[in-house]
Amino acid sequence: MELEGAAALVTGGASGIGLATTELLRAAGARVAVIDVQDVPVAVDLALRCDISVEEEVVSGVRRAHDALGGIDVAVLNAGVGGFGALVDLSSAEWDRVIGVNLRGTFLCLREVGRAMVAGGRGGAVVAVGSISGFLADRMMGHYSVSKAGVAALVRVAARELGPFGIRVNAVAPGTTDTPMFASTTRLPGFRARVAERAALGEIGTPQGVAHAITALLRLDWVTGQVLAADGGVSLWSPIDPAESLGS
């Protein structure tokens, strides 16, 4: 997929990974529409206020982006929220809030983008932003982990269904990344240092690092239905690593 001149839609493009991706797409020559609940701090071709958990707003937002850009060639489904709490303490409202944005919202955006790409007849590429929490058992993050596991499954099914139309669907699974969402972990003593130590590359990720993984997946014409961990190797850490007993 050639990004220069492409019509691109980014959800949650006002901050963090979404903002970094928006800037990379613009630098590559793409025309970019952003939908977010926040104001977009950089120049884009179209910026729309949209809560992706609300179906009517998603339908309207994707349609307006399509009309403004003359179609949609690539889409980055990045919008999401975090959550924290033990399963036995979670309210159903908190469960619904996280699932409603991260999984239902991603589905709604994927459905509308898929419809637009199929109708356009020129193929396309979609990358959803999941998380390594979707395949790890992180305590206190059950609803978040479930939502991101669902995104991974959604991407694989969508890749099969949309492949015949020349549309590729993949996901990136970031690990600990220095975004506004990650800033909430400052209340957890020693968390940041511990995660950096356990990452194979020895540090916390950056939004730009994940954004490069996203744009790489958009360009890879023979890759679909895959989930790429863009996490600096933190998900490689094992609690039963025998090398630790040897002092390694």
Quick overview of this protein structure:
This protein has six helices and seven strands; from the N terminus they run E-H-E-E-H-E-H-E-H-E-H-H-E.
Side-by-side strand order of the widest sheet:
3-2-1-4-5-6-7
Regions with little confidence, pLDDT below 50 for 5+ residues: none
Highest-level CATH class: Alpha Beta
Average pLDDT level: 95
Could you give the order of the helices and strands? EHEEHEHEHEHHE
Helix content: 25-40%
How does this model look, in words?
There is one protein chain. By secondary structure, this protein is α/β, with parallel strands linked by helices. It has one domain: Rossmann fold, CATH 3.40.50.720. The protein contains six helices and seven strands, in the order E-H-E-E-H-E-H-E-H-E-H-H-E. A seven-stranded parallel sheet has the order 3-2-1-4-5-6-7, sandwiched between helices. Strand 1, helix 1 and strand 2 form a beta-alpha-beta unit. The longest helix is centred in the middle third of the chain and has 29 residues. The mean pLDDT is 95.
What topology does this entry show?
Elements: E1 7-11, H1 16-27, E2 31-36, E3 46-49, H2 55-69, E4 74-77, H3 92-120, E5 124-129, H4 142-162, E6 167-174, H5 191-198, H6 207-219, E7 227-230
Parallel strand pairs: 1-2, 1-4, 2-3, 4-5, 5-6, 6-7
Helix pairs in contact: 1-6, 2-3, 3-4
What attributes characterize this protein structure?
single chain, 248 residues, alpha/beta, Rossmann fold, seven-stranded parallel beta sheet, 6 helices, 40% helix, 15% strand, globular
